[in-house]
Design brief:
The protein has 182 residues and is α+β, with helices and mostly antiparallel strands. Helices cover 13% and strands 17% of the residues.
Length: 182
């Protein structure tokens, strides 16, 4: 058996055809869709409402689930209004975050009413915040939603009844704004 010597043969490198200098995504071919459907003119895209339409006045506070106030007559704008307007569904956890305010007014769907009232009574169980609760049907007339109004109240020993809460400010004393224990 004769041992063969290994020879280093160099093979000529295969030349690839030169590709045109087109910037493409590395690793895959460009989409043929873009060749048939060029990008749209940015001037033809649908725009949302003008910035002034969705803003809330500085003094107003938007509450989740609350009935929005009637919008003012729209001024003439060049931007079209959206075709669909989505409203967030009522969330009991968002409502619970409102507890602690002086007054709260929300529209609650019928299926969430029991849970809302349970959370209000549980919150008042601590004795720090006490609310006068008013529940009435929403204006739709189908009894699918109810308007729940909470007004913070304090007990007045002089009158012997619950009176609307009056904010007296904050105090550095643990005994209240007067600073004494009585």
């Amino acid at each position: 058996m004769v041992a063969r010597k290994k020879t280093n043969r160099t093979r000529p490198a295969k030349r690839r055809p030169a590709r045109p200098a087109v910037h493409r995504f590395v690793g895959r071919d460009a989409s043929p869709v873009l060749d048939h459907y060029p990008p749209k003119d940015p001037g033809l895209t649908v725009r949302g409402p003008p910035p002034s339409a969705g803003t809330v006045p500085a003094g107003a506070v938007a509450r989740p689930g609350a009935v929005p106030p009637a919008p003012a007559a729209p001024a003439e704008t060049t931007a079209p209004l959206p075709l669909i307007r989505l409203e967030r569904p009522f969330d009991v956890d968002d409502f619970s975050s409102l507890l602690g305010e002086t007054s709260v007014r929300v529209t609650v769907p019928r299926e969430d009413l029991a849970e809302v009232l349970r959370r209000v009574s549980e919150f008042m169980g601590f004795g720090i915040y006490v609310y006068s609760v008013t529940v009435r049907p929403a204006p739709s007339g189908l009894l699918k939603a109810f308007v729940v109004e909470l007004q913070r109240v304090d007990f007045s020993p002089e009158k012997g009844e619950w009176v609307p809460f009056v904010d007296q400010g904050t105090s550095g004393s643990p005994f209240g704004p007067s600073g004494n224990r009585t």
